Amino acid sequence: MIPLVHQEVVKRHEWMDDDAFADVLAIGNTLPGPIASKMAGYIGFRVAGTFGAIIALIAVIVPVIFAMIALLGIYSRYGDQRWVQGMGQGIVPVVMVMMAQLTLDFFNKSRAGLGIIATLIMGVIAGGLIYGLGIHPGLVIGAILVAALLRPDPDAKRRRADVNKETTR
Amino acid sequence: MIYWQLFLAFFVPNIVGYGGGPAIIPLIENEVVGNYGWMTHQVFAETLALGNALPSPIATKMAGYIGYDVAGASGAMVAVLATVGPSLLLMLAALGTLYRYRNSIKVKSMSQWVRPVVMVLMAYLTWSFLREGMASSGLIHTLIIGAVAFGLLLKTRVHPALVVCFGLGYGALLLG
Known about the structure:
B: mainly alpha, 85% helix
């Protein structure tokens, strides 16, 4: 999706250059929530103010929601037919596999970033807190986010180490 | 107050929604199916399947549809606003501050550290759908559909919409 937005915003309409677009993307990634709607809202705002933001957001979000409501509406109208109920049952294992695939994706990404041991330890602890003690997953994730923000800056430490090396020499 | 509940149900998952787009799915499921009981697992699975078959981000599609299902057009608006509003406003208001942190190692570690937790939530959701499938269609059908979907999604990389169609067709013919 992002390359397509880039094509429209940078190449076709020339609302911003490559560097500005890359900055907006990087800034968007510092915040939670879906990136497509953040990009649309922000670029819309830069190009044409509040109204532009609203238009861009509507263009990204609304058509697909109408499609969902229409399709699921038709589906539930025939919900008492046996074969339609069968369709609903048949979809559950497909979604199960999609979730399994996402689980695997997140495992692989996490392993690449943190290593397999940290991934498994964090996974087990999080699972115990959420499913064992019944703590809300939002709280667990929120605590981790705060910890990540408060961690000592590794760059600063390296800089300080460099300075110490200089002074002792 | 249903609108306030809808706002919270989508605000909380999105405000902690780091680690990539789909990270939001198990958090939304936790609110919609677990906390508030607006949907069964089965209906959530149907909504998610359709959402995966259509383009554009999954979070706003789910918010719009579930909001509409729970409280009509204004429900859809509240849920979508709770999804996109807070971080968009932050982005517009605090651009300068965020600009300084855009390549910060802390921000990168936020996404990284959250991933193992999301992995566990996803695994649990997979397990819920497995139980749901076995209860409604039995072990054999669940395994057959699951195996074909697995082969198609992981080995051939066909569009998810086609895999969804396979599940619908199989269900209509053999489970109806």
